[in-house]
Amino acid sequence: MERQGGCACGAVRYVAEGGPLRVGLCHCLTCRKRHGAPFNAFAAFRSDKVRIEGQPTVWTGAEHGLIHGCAVCGSPLFWTAEGERDGEIEIHLGGLDEVGQFTPQYEVWVKRREPWLPPLNVPQYAENRPAGMPT
Which of 6, 99, 117, 125 is most buried (most C-beta within 10 Å)? Predict the structure, then answer.
């Protein structure tokens, strides 16, 4: 199955094939500031399962990775890992063309969750997931 998405203006598009490695919801300050939203919902795929069309800009400043987005409209689109998760790409669910394709399997950095936002019925981690956890 293919999942398609892209930026607000259409200059950068992507197609993700198959299922994700994991789907999460992050409340960390980096994600909050980067998106201007109270959390970031994402699906992590193997990099070789994602085809990118157009020329995304790479912004630095993401902890342990790089932020990629559109230079034309400024939409943040995905994040690529460095280190132990190198070879992965985290697609922001808000950039997908169709809603409801993925449901988060866990939440991280819940100590930063807005008090008005109820927790999902999934594993909750005060900070990052423990290393080696599949979800």
Answer: 6
